[in-house]
Amino acid sequence: MTKTSGNATDRTDVHLSLIGGTRLEGKAVHERTLTVSLIGGADIDLTDVAVPDGSELRLTKLSLIGGVKLRVRPDVRVVVTGVRLGGVSDEGPTVTGGPTVHVNAWGLLGGVRVLRG
Fold first, then answer.
1. What is the DSSP code (8-state) at residue 47?
2. What single DSSP character describes residue 30?
3. DSSP symbol at 94
4. 3-state secondary structure of 64
5. Are 35 and 58 in contact (CB under 8 A)?
6. Are 117 and 84 spatial neighbours (Cβ–Cβ below 8 Å)?
7. pTM value > 0.90
């Protein structure tokens, strides 16, 4: 995760794709990340990202068609908000405490699937 510093704390990293999804992993993910696509979802891998306990990583996905596949460590709490015609698949954190990832998913079709491990 790339941590912003100083006056850039309101910075949001934006990824735009008209057709096709977005794949992000490791250092490509910032504290606030926005992915926008007409058709295509977001495949985000945070398993190797060191998110400090008590901090929150915010991901926003906007698309007409396409969901979110999110890979996180077992101790990460995931909060999903937004409006979409698809469910949320998450068995919850397997370890208490830990950091939080907030996924704000907006779209016509597509759910949010969280994979842990």
1. T
2. B
3. S
4. strand
5. no
6. no
7. no
pLDDT tens-digit map of 18-58: 888 889 987 777 788 899 998 988 999 998 887 777 778 89
Give CA–CA dist 1/49, Å, rounded: 6
Q: Is residue 63 within 8 Å of residue 107, measured between CB atoms?
A: yes
Cα gap 58→36, rounded to integer Å: 14
DSSP 53: T
Contacts of 62 (CB under 8 A, 6+ apart): 34, 35, 36, 37, 106, 107
Q: Assess contact for 36 and 19: CB atoms under 8 A.
A: no
DSSP output for the chain: -BPP-GGGGG--EEEEEEES-EEEEGGG-BSEEEEEEEE--EEEE-TT--PPTT-EEEEEEEEEE--EEEEE-TT-EEEEES--BS-EE----SSSS--EEEEEEEEEE--EEEEE-
| CB 64 within 8 Å of CB 90 | no
